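Model it.
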Amino acid sequence: MKASKKSVYEIVTDRICELLEKGNIPWRKPWTGTHGGFPRSMESGKLYRGINHFLLSCADFESPYWLTFNQARNRGGQVRKGEKGTPIIFFQWKEYEKTSSNGETVKEQKPILRYYVVMNIEQIDGIEAPKGEEIKDFGFDPIAEAETIIHNMPNRPHITHNEQRAYYQPALDMVNMPKATSFEQAEGYYSVLFHELAHSTGHESRLARERFSGMAAFGDETYSREELVAEFGAAFLCGHARIEPATIENSAAYIQGWIKRIKSDPRLIVTAAAQGQKAADYILGQHGTDGE
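Modeled.
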């Protein structure tokens, strides 16, 4: 059994690393929301792309519509007190002159990285969002292996389906999930649920992960580490549930979103994978067994 367990982790880790080496893979939330759609500018209607797509998709809002502070004000909106914006990046091209090797003055351009802050329409009063899509119902066919893992998790947190958002709330020790029927594939539902259950293992009543509080700021070191731990844990659990082929690319893409942090700290991905394995072990009821 021990060799079999290790082979699952090794296969999943190797596959994620292989996909990461091929470059960025577009990541998306695999469920439909009350508003539906990808993050977009409410002003222009254009979709955000690249890292901005990832940053805004990870923010904790159902609506896909975003505005700058000035755009909201010009529409008669008021940002709620205490709300914080989400920074997104863009490249501004700056023209400059230089002398070429033959003594001629030539003009060249170089990109300068800039950022600005946007607010989700859910953070703004006085502006009505465009009418959203109804939540699609794809039906749901439970996967026995995944259901067994969830049912048998020791000290499992309470799981609810109260809103179309996926999150773990440490203060209540509760996982909320979008409706299972709003996922196009059942595998996507279990992958997201495994991610949130992996987060729950950081709770003091379980693995008491160091510096785990659930209150870290988006993008900081603690947040980045915890997200990687949860996604590795989810990927490992998907391997055990035999749904890894349908979910591994999304896992790799999610981890790819933290590539800058990974590159700045080469130990991060190794540590996160090890902690993700411990999270998976706990959920599988193997916490404290040989192979820690």
